[in-house]
Amino acid sequence: MRSFKTIVAATLGSVALLACDGNPVDSNGGMQLTLSPDSVVVGVYQSSPLIATVRSANGAIQHVPVQYVSRDQSVATVNASGAVSAVAAGATYVVATLPDRPEVRDSVRVRVHADSCSGARPDFGGAATAADRALFAYDASASLNLQKTVESTLNGVEVSSISFSHAGGGLVTGMMWDPVTRPGLRPGVVVMHGLPGRGRDMAFIGQSYAQYGAVVIAIDAPWNHRVTPPFLTITEQDRAEQIQVVKDLQRAVDVLRSRHTVDSDRIAFVGFSWGGATGALFVGIERRLKAAALVVGHGGQVSHATGPEGYKLIAGFSCARRVAWIRAMAPIEPIRFIGHANAPLLLQNGRWDEYIPSADAAELHAAAPEPRDVRWYDAGHNLTQQAVIDRQRWLHERIGLDAPAGK
User: Fold this and answer.
1) Higher-pLDDT residue of 269, 316
2) How is residue 334 annotated by DSSP?
């Protein structure tokens, strides 16, 4: 005779349309499958194991394969070993069966809660308001105090380390690539690196764009001026530095516009990964851009840290610290600002990105205003050479960067 739990599970399954076949459950030759625990309660992005026990008619344990399925994978998934992983708040059932005896089955109810400590994504409250955008205001008339040290000249491109005053005092540091042998006015490009990183890491991109005719600046993120890591502190310091880097990027536009060789009406932004996400905020603030490319970007640090990959960044911190960080960062989440962009956008992402889930990238794409050019590639986080060519051609069409070779 089957256990009361098995009977209840089968009944619940029928009511919830979980068991779609019409076979009687007791036509199992005496075989019995039991799952434990009886139910699962778990937080978003947390996991819980299930144990399946299979017995023959005489009660002997049988070591046979078991198949698992979640009836709503948007709430929770289950792997081949029976480990349940929560995805979003809600409820579902996980059903276990024998592969060759689908009538032998058991199920457990899985409830996923979304309290303030579970890592659930908050409601960002819609598009950024005027008050939100005012957080990034700065004194554009303040002296730049640009300092430039030429390090080398390569293929007609002068490579320099630079510094200039940032809006709150102190210095912004970075690199500049200037095609000094080019006559006439040239386009300008501001480049933002990923996390971890610094402006110098953009040397290949800066050199390439400069050889194709642009004056390029890549600035260092504020964390580069700290004595020690981590790059994200999961404190309110991250909020202050997010605001600062957007002001620094605006100052970088000021630097380009101050160069007598740069056409002020042909300035673009290109950001990669963390720089692409930060760029989603930047384009909602900066009104002087002619175009912006957000490469393998996402909706922002909170969006990322409350997703299945990024949650690993905050999972080890205390509840209070996570809650305080999310509350501090959510109002300046880039996905809230991108809708204010007034320049054409190119959004490039990889379908198989190991760091940025495609669903997170798609959310950013959906929030972006027209005109937007969304391009997906069969690639991971580093994309493909075709993405590089597509980006250069797109910049050629919008700011007059030299046309790329190839298709």
Assistant:
1) 269
2) G
